[in-house]
Amino acid sequence: MTKVLGKDDLLKANLKRELVPVPELGASLWMQEMTAEHVIEFKKHIDTLRKNGQKESTLEQDVEIMTMVISFSACDENGTLLFTQDEAKGLTKNNLNVLMDLGNKALEISGVKIESQGFASEVTDNLPKAQPTSLSVTSPANSRKRVRKS
């Protein structure tokens, strides 16, 4: 028998969550997919950057984007977010690779794709694993696979 969802079921957060290893820090971090509100806020931020015809992001903008998505995704085991956006800016004191890896993981879990096209390469060519981003965002609308039961 199939459960019928009610109002309360739909209004409570039902977000994917996973424990993400952070080998550089010798620990793991819970991360969850971004809410629809967070994806909208993220897209608005990208749109603002693109407003004046900017097609490439700088390393500084990449780091800003990654701290934003980490603040939308890093959580405790119960799904309570760990950082406000302002607090997440403090993550820039950490290893750049850790920051980029966690930001990319937050996007991956949420089904949001940013096309990587080697932007800001002047700065990042000598930084291992740093992946600058283009300012093109694919929303997670069709990112979930649907399985039909026969």
User: Alpha-carbon distance between the termini?
Assistant: 14 Å
**Helix segment tally:** 6
Radius of gyration computed on alpha carbons: 17 Å
Q: What would the CATH topology be?
A: rbstp2171
Secondary structure tally: strands: 5
Our count of domains comes out at 1
* Fraction of residues in H or I helices: 25-40%
CATH architecture field:
2-Layer Sandwich
Unreliable segments of 5+ consecutive residues: 117-132, 141-150
Please sum up the structure shown.
It contains 6 helices and 5 strands; from the N terminus they run H-E-E-H-H-E-H-H-E-H-E.
Structure description:
- The protein has a single domain (18-140), classed as rbstp2171 (2-Layer Sandwich).
- It is 39% helix and 12% strand.
- It is built from six helices and five strands.
- It has helices spanning 7-11, 36-50, 59-73, 85-88, 96-110, 121-124; strands at residues 17-22, 27-32, 74-75, 113-114, 137-138.
- A hairpin with a 4-residue loop joins strand 1 (17-22) and strand 2 (27-32).
- The longest helix is centred in the first third of the chain and has 15 residues, at 36-50.
Features:
150 residues; two-stranded antiparallel ribbon; alpha+beta; 5 strands; globular; 3-stranded antiparallel β-sheet; 6 helices; 39% helix; rbstp2171; disordered C terminus
What topology does this entry show?
Layout (H helix, E strand, L loop, with lengths): L6 H5 L5 E6 L4 E6 L3 H15 L8 H15 E2 L9 H4 L7 H15 L2 E2 L6 H4 L12 E2 L12
Antiparallel strand pairs: 1-2, 2-3, 4-5
